[in-house]
Amino acid sequence: MLQPCSNNCSFCFVQYTNVMSNENLFRGIDKEEIGEIIRNVHHQVRSYNAGEIIIHEEEEYDSLLILVQGTVTTEMMNPDGQVLVLEQLEAPATLAPGSLFASHPQIPVSVVAQNNCRALLISRNSMNQILATNPKVLTNFMEILSNRIQFLSNRLKSLQFQSLRSKFAQHILQMNTIQKSLNVTLQKTQQELSELFGVARPSLARVIREMHNEGLIHAQGKHITILNIESLRRTK
To answer: What angle do CA 60, 99, 136 make, to 5 degrees?
Structure first.
């Protein structure tokens, strides 16, 4: 059995090897090998409270963070103070891998804990060591970077070219697919959705009211009944 790093290791990573075996960075590697990989490099496990900013926008990113417990959001703030939520991530998740080896390794977003979280931190030098000695982790890391580029490109396209009506319609249709029902329950508040869409909350409330009045949906709080799914799919 894999042993803790030392008797003083109160939040030892050994507790999270099962979680990390489901993380894309360690896909295809059993938990005992993951434990040996981490044990042999410099690392830490840190705890964060709900609402705490784990990393501030433009902060130097000198250690890879792997979320092993909890949920976080990545956020940007414009000069007017408006918050744009880029995504929500649940453990296990590798945070901001593209910033770690940049020539100017500053993270472009803030990472905010949505509930009590824990993260494994692996220093840049330690990640270099892991990638140089473990081809499987290197392949997984490259795949994660490629997926992040695709995600951010699609996210930018959505923010730039989709109308607010279209964004909300697509969100409802996504919930319809997940929940397999025309009666869907939104998982986010209007404020959270407005941040996700990059708009002010009153703008989103107006769009929901318009779609309700047009007979596309029946909206009551977080509960949405899809009344005309074909028209919803054609919403621009």
So the answer is: 130
